[in-house]
User: Fold these one by one.
Assistant:
Number 1:
Amino acid sequence: MLSRPLLALAGALALVVGTASAAPIATGEMLANSCAGCHGTNGRISNSAFMPLAGMPQEQFVRTMTDFREGRRSSTLMGHVAKGYSDEELKAMAAFFASVKP
Ligand code: HEC
């Protein structure tokens, strides 16, 4: 179930690595593509058991994802998802989602 988003992320990272002049890390928008399968494109989803991410305040996003990653917040899926991201990547995604209008 997680392989598709992880593959998408691997693809995004490969793109960045393949372009010498590009930024050294994937942008928040690229990283956020991995979340679209469940949370909607750009974190926009209207009808859902999955919460929208668009417009979530950056601090709340980083805290929630860190809690999932460290196991402080229980989850069915997000603990595994969150383990795949460094603090820098979470900050990049936070900035992206906060900039998207819900
Ligand atoms: C396979 C489906 C799936 C994918 C992919 C996924 N999520 Fe989630 N997400 C969930 C589920 C389900 C929950 C509810 C908590 C739980 O049970 O894990 C959740 C909850 C969350 C929450 C908490 C929302 C709130 O209002 O408290 C955040 C933040 C979040 N996800 C961020 C992300 C981000 C960022 C990504 C991409 C890196 C992502 N998710 C990818 C399924 C997914």
Number 2:
Amino acid sequence: MAVVGPSRGGARGSMSVMQGAGQAVVTGAQSYYHPPPPSQDLQPDRPIGYGAFGVVWAVTDPRDGRRVALKKLPNVFQSLVSSKRVFRELKMLCFFKHENVLSAQDILQPPHLDFFQEIYVITELLQSDLHKIIVSPQHLSSDHIKVFLYQILRGLKYLHSARILHRDIKPGNLLVNSNCVLKICDFGLARVEEPDKTKLMTQEVVTQYYRAPEILMGARHYSAAVDVWSVGCIFGELLGRRILFQAQSPVLQLELITDLLGTPSLEDMRHACEGARTHMLRHRTKPPALSALYTLSSLATHEAVHLLCQMLVFDPDKRITVVDALAHPYLDEGRLRYHSCMCKCCYTTTNAMRQYTVDFEPVTQHTFDDLWEKKLTSIQQVKEEMHKFITEQLNSSRVPLCINPQSAAFKSFAR
Ligand SMILES: [Zn+2]
């Protein structure tokens, strides 16, 4: 299976004319498009990941030969709920501007509204993710852990400043490139914080191993603290190279958590639903066993465990915030390393002096607005709005891209 676009005879028309243009999944959409000369190492288009909320492919951008990730947002117009969820994810991907948060570089040109069924987004391509790294035999030093944790928190600070809760922070959603730059991805479950504490929020969030105790205990309302809990679980997993709380069911998940933290006080369970609280009180009282965290590995130093214990706090109101976690001395070295050679916000001058940015962990200027969601009341309406939104996003200075349905790779993709 050959590659994308940069083949001769390329795009003298729209998609259908692209038959002769090789096996590329993505291709230029306009008649004036002249593909660049073939690059040296042509790599085939291939799937790189499957998640609950889409398939991701590694493809070549035919306009410049760069390797990028192509994500298909699935089941877009199945129901009003799913179409609004996809629209929200799409708007977020276009909103984000932060080094540690994955954002949309491009959206494929949609067909005419009558044929509009699928949405494809192009993002930066990162080779690996934290899950693959943790289960690999690759050595992880304390420097690795610090720089990863720093970047997770740096990205989350930005998201939380936009009032966005990610709600599915897990190692597989933290992409990593070969230089250890990390980006938070997959916003399929993300939503804007609910300021109204009486409003019911769904429990169907966060992969169980990383799910905060208040969600496990049926809290009707929860906050950005659920993401911090997930980061704590990942921090523990980085230190111990195994999942911190790996249980078979939500009830057993809570058991494992209380084995470590001890039985919570009534006060600490005030967000829980009545049934969960009663269940907890029926069991014998467990003492906390936090010193077990020192046995995770030799990398679990006093400083590391000190920070970890503040993330793994039962009561979400007493759990450390992302901003306070970033101020913990454990992360000083991670910050220094990141801004010395990995970031894009600082630079090295011609006389080899490093010019540091004034703001190491920037926040967004504007919060993410979700008022538009409330006005959408039918699938057709979402479809029209989304079509309009995508058309507006298309950068007029670049050739729009579209799917090449003749590509063998795409045919297997579609299957
Ligand atoms: Zn920097």
Number 3:
Amino acid sequence: MKRKILVVDDDTAIVEVLEMRLNAMGYDVTATADPQAAIAAADGTRFDLALIDLRMEPTDGIALMEAVHGRQPRLPVLIMTAHGTIETAVDAVQRGAFDYLTKPFLRDELRAKIARALASRRWARDRERLLTVGQTLASSGIMARVLDAVAQGAVETTEADRCVVFQLEHGRLVPMASAGSPPPSWPALEAAAAAAMTKGLPVTFPGSETGAIVAAPLVVQKGPTGALVIETARGIEPNEDDLELLALFSSQAAVAVRTTHELEGLRSGALAALGRMATQVAHELKNPLAGLRLYARHLEQRLGKGGDAEGVGLAQKITSTVDHLAAVVQEITAFGRPPELHRAPASVHALLDECLSFAQAKCETPDIEVFRAYDAACPTAPLDVRELRKAFLNLVLNGLEALAPGGRLTVTTGYSSETRTVTIVIEDTGVGMSEETLGRIFDLFFTTKPQGTGLGMAVARSVVDLHGGELTIHSTLGKGTRVNVRLPLEPPPPPAGGAGA
Ligand SMILES: Nc1ncnc2c1ncn2[C@@H]1O[C@H](COP(=O)(O)OP(=O)(O)OP(=O)(O)O)[C@@H](O)[C@H]1O
Ligand SMILES: [Mg+2]
């Protein structure tokens, strides 16, 4: 495929000479003395290089270069100038020209500068491509995000109008991500994707309007599992370079997809294994901890009898530390076997107050406001306060921990006598969460805090679930988080067939 060069000079003699010489060097030349015609050409054809005269009437070369760059931002431009105007040529380079050529042209200089400009175009494209792909690979995680980055990267590196990533799901091609303008025709893109997958190589089709569709298979494991399809609608013919570029890009995209698959698999597998191990370890710790607590109490009593007040204090510290450890262990083992609820009449508001005052005492951030808006109609109800305390304490603590000085935490309740349900809303004006954090918030051991265990939300949800309720979260990064807990005040009815027997 010949490289395309645009030549613009208001001196027709120079236009002719250059056209002849560049043709002889093997380039595909569009040469004109009319700047408007040059702009029109740049609208319809993608060039690899432009040679533009500096001094032209009425448009000067720099203005024309800027107009062309408006259409093809990365097109290298060589500005042509006579000897007297080197300074302006330097200015042209500062404004985006790749280099300048002095008239009259020396054959070697012409050849060398053109070769260098063409190479730079390729190099710039390669560099950008690698950068985009690198970023894609680095952004491990959520598949949808990886595919979006792939589509976006493909549009940017190939200068196509749009890109769609298809994946084969249950025998059907499903568009998973897209970038650029919406396609005028989906079937055309789908057909190209199917053809590329069958062939196992990039394919080119005429576009639905005037352009072209290029599709490259996405080979993730053994065979193609989808395709990367780009479309150009500007009468641009993709050349071999473009096909090669897309093939490379799609193979990199496939690596990203595979990595994400593997990571997701690993993450859930590892989490499950970690959860099992933690439960086992916790179980093994339970009895020795009970023993340790007994010895510490013993020690405390003996030291007390001997009148050693300092020793008694130390022994008490051991006891309370052991109690704390036992509580953690209890929490971890709870995952192996969800606790049975021990319901007793309790007040939701008293429980919330208790959690708030404990959490506020723990929180070190200054200047924090805490608001309560309780619905006085909310009655006492049979609840497991011990379990619910863990849940609400964590929700309130999370809210407070998310706040910066000057932040606000609001706890609201609302009672519906019709459904006998209380809705508790815990809202903070804190850091909020990214989509990724939000997506993993209930994962065991997922935490973004240096001292966090990442168990809080998982515990909270399981406790609310056990009560037959529902916990939902809304969060905006940088703005804050709202947690809704819908809690039925009656135990759920016994399973069908159990009642009235
Ligand atoms: N209100 C909130 N605002 C911002 N991020 C939150 C909020 N609540 C939870 N998160 C995010 O979710 C993560 C998991 O929360 P979770 O309560 O499960 O664990 P943790 O608070 O990190 O540790 P711990 O087990 O001690 O509670 C937190 O690390 C934090 O990134
Ligand atoms: Mg927490």
Number 4:
Amino acid sequence: MASPQVIIIGSGLSGLSLSIFLTRLIPTATIKIYEVRPSTHPSTTGTINLTPNALRVLDHLGIYKSLIPQGFNFDNLTMLNHQFDFLASIPIAGVSEFEYQSLRIERRIVHSALLEKVQGQPQVEIIYDAKCESVEESDSTVTVRFTNGTSATGDILIACDGIHSTVRKSFVKDPKDFDPKYTGQISVGGNITKAQIQEYNLKNNPYPMMMFGPEAGKGASFMVWPYNHDGDQFTFFTTLSKPDEEKDWKEFSDKQKLKDIMQETFLSEDSPWNEMVKKTVELSDVDSYRFWPFYLHSIPEKFYSEKARIVLIGDAAHAMPPSGGQGAAMAFEDAETLAYSLAGVLSTESSLGTPQGLEIMSKWSEHRIARMKTIQELNRRMADMRKGSTGSTSGVMFTVKVWAIWVLGLLGVLGRTRRAINNYDANKEAVGWLGEATIGKLE
Ligand SMILES: Cc1cc2nc3c(=O)[nH]c(=O)nc-3n(C[C@H](O)[C@H](O)[C@H](O)COP(=O)(O)OP(=O)(O)OC[C@H]3O[C@@H](n4cnc5c(N)ncnc54)[C@H](O)[C@@H]3O)c2cc1C
């Protein structure tokens, strides 16, 4: 296909990354990104943790080095119990073993670095205030309709429209798989400065910290995590069990209510928690509070449509709760591996509808589904660990959990799980279904 017309829905982390890879791998492509948000507010707020597998993609995109001085770079996560006793230091990342440290950073900084890169590409146009309503494919084209009555047609459409994806609804066959499922957990947290709480870090334990409580009802876990380069601005959060899903979660947009929840959980008279946790909650500014309900998408049979003209990536394909800190990482990995695959399909005589083209898409999709299942399992284990064991007032379960963490840390088992996550290199993986020769030609 001489000059493929690519449509991307959503200019979030996956949509922007994909477009940059495509300009490099298919220089003849014209790429239009349609985004519902206005150009004045292109990104959401908050902080994210990026593990080496995510940072490797950002490095391949040429933006990683610019992010290093803008976030908190670290290797280990300190695990403590509610009394502030040290349990383990878990290796999360590190240059010698994984090529990269881990990076906690404001999401808007990552987004604007990607955006800046996209804006330098003449083949890419971003159209804001454009809400996709539906998509439809034929043998040779794909058409997207917008809520303002307009439409656009291209050769291929990539759904990067996030957890509440509209494209997913036109794509996934079973209506019960349209919407993400609530997992029964919520996260509540806010921001605090190091200056406000350092005096309560009596043993000078290194940040970031994950603390475990003795009883789910009194707060199962509490995280304190720096997010700027100097490590003096912290985000803190807890995961709470909330079995019933709210219809619209409107009540939780009240920041005072969120702080009240934290106070009830961590500052009650019989609270078992250490001073650092108590002071973090007590001294935190109510305006900094945020809340997230945890949702999970079922993984579709494949990530591309019948005629392979519609492809799902990122949260649209496989949104997962933030407990494993891998959602953005998976979106980045999807973007890079898909870009290689599309370049493999479109740069040869084969095209999307041909058996050769379909075979490449099928192998890419199978590979990504297998990866996603591994990551979702890890996510589930992390969520269980953060949630704690409900009603374990006897403390027996808590003791077991604490020792399990300590022993696992000692044996480096958690470190080995990390290797499976961190060492993923999209470029090397794509050789598996495209072959050395094709990848060599694309680079
Ligand atoms: C609280 C929280 C903490 C997280 N922490 C981490 C972390 O530490 N590490 C990590 O790796 N991941 C984390 N994640 C997950 C990560 O943020 C997501 O997985 C990632 O943003 C997914 O990227 P995406 O491009 O698929 O979707 P998004 O980044 O959500 O982008 C989707 C884009 O599509 C646009 N859009 C939506 N609908 C339409 C439409 N109909 N038409 C046009 N445009 C549309 C949206 O406006 C948005 O710009 C966290 C998520 C949450 C909620």
